[in-house]
């Protein structure tokens, strides 16, 4: 929310009070509290009829400092609150006073504030460098003539500092100059609305900020006060965490550890997913023709997904197959699984009035209610739909029991759609604040489904295809980018959303290959195939038209075959990257900022990414194949052609539909599998270690770890490159080959 009218004045009806002067500071061993007057106190009488702002600080985890600003402390906290599985019940901090300052230190991060005089907060790194600070207007509250009360903070932006993250946002990748509201919405990918609102941002200066509030948080990123990031909530209290680096990877690891590390998706989920599409006509014969058509054309398929109309119209959700279309669902699932497929079905948390489950849920009180005690209903999406109340444990168990029937039939995963259009004029079973629950609802929804899958299928076998998320939602992968158009522009905005989400703690991300709405031009579809099959997860899905490759010509079939098989070969490398995401929170699809934080150009690159640490992907967004992309320092080798390019520099190339800039970092050793037919094959069978050593690389040693399908280490290879030769020592007796790419003749 913007409170000011330009630099000098407040907006009409807004009255702001800023922490101005320190009146008291109290230190315990591991936390501190400061009390700041909102005006200068010249005499005793100035302490009357005026508020204090209470500022409390502690460390919920090493390298994380929490700051809580409070005006009136008596407001009853209804919840919900973000789950913070990485938070310690004891503050991970030490305190001290030094002269006229007090300090609270946690790992490489220190909060410093004065014990007397002008109030302000400074956050310092381990070398004593000020990362950011809350200056004269940095800790405050505002009242508005409409009766609302807002707490807000401002943290300084340095010259050239860039801000990233804040969830999956399709607006410009660098958030400087934007107003960003945390409010879940079903707005597609072509607006400022977002399905995944995460009140966390990452700074190019090597720190992050997480606002610990699940409701509406308004960010003004250098937009109201151009030299600050401002964030505000309509509340009496505001808590934010400053998270230390020093590198962006370190920031993300600390944030993900605090809010929940992502589960490791099963290896089979990294293969190609094909769906029925949304409103198209389909039955078992149609589905079988798609599956057999893929096999006949040599395109490996891993998952088949049934979208909404696997259920009867007007009955979403009843979790029952439409008997007129699928008279033998168990038999059909068995027949599809006999072809080597996993099965996914679409669900959402809404129960239409025509669904047999409506009466059952209404009788048992499992739906969200109005303040008058009625069931909240509307006709958007499904006629008379009600909303499952996941704050009620019995309702959650009831919902899970309905899904378990599908798992017993052979379903392997769920596309957990929707979860954004959550009303605020309602009453929740546990008394939660409706404003705070609006964003948080999706977390309870996805958690319920994911935990059911883990309980029934086992840890490491659970996977969702989720559209909405809140902070901590990265624990329940995978997430996809939502409803986009079938155009190059939508392809680019989808990538921006994925990059922003990856800098918000999410390890795995996907998108609808070819776009969702409309029917893509064959050129768009073919370019999107390469992008989609070089993402962590890959799905062919549309709205009113099919997405089987042969609908877009023979060349589309060739492109789909080529890049699906390439992804399968990359799986020993890619699954190792997935294991890293699971253990550290560093995402599989990485903005260049993560690997090259000292490169100013890398900080703003939004049309390319790194797949893991070593593979740079620059999707082509043009019909004619012309692509402009940036390579950081070093010599990079095209994986598909063996050509090299050097950086730091921009390059412009033209690529056919069977190609794109796919570059491997100098000195990398890629582990490539021999099995092109599936993502979860025997990776150690005839493994190839491809050593990228272009001229001038010099001697080096690299350790390559190949995981098994549980994420445990299956084999380790130490590759030593000296004098143009590569020597390998390993702890496995499985056969492998070594290929050195880039040696002089």
UniProtKB/TrEMBL annotation:
Residues 585-670 form the Glycosyl hydrolase family 31 C-terminal domain. Residues 55-220 form the Glycoside hydrolase family 31 N-terminal domain. One of its GO terms (molecular function) is alpha-D-xyloside xylohydrolase. SUPFAM superfamilies: (Trans)glycosidases (SSF51445), Galactose mutarotase-like (SSF74650), Glycosyl hydrolase domain (SSF51011), Putative glucosidase YicI, C-terminal domain (SSF117125). Residues 76-107 are annotated as: Disordered. Gene3D superfamilies: Glycosidases, glycosyl hydrolase (family 31), Golgi alpha-mannosidase II. Residues 262-575 form the Glycoside hydrolase family 31 TIM barrel domain. It is an enzyme of class 3 (hydrolase). PANTHER family: GLYCOSIDASE FAMILY 31 (PTHR43053), MYOGENESIS-REGULATING GLYCOSIDASE (PTHR43053:SF4). This is Alpha-xylosidase. It comes from [Kitasatospora] papulosa.
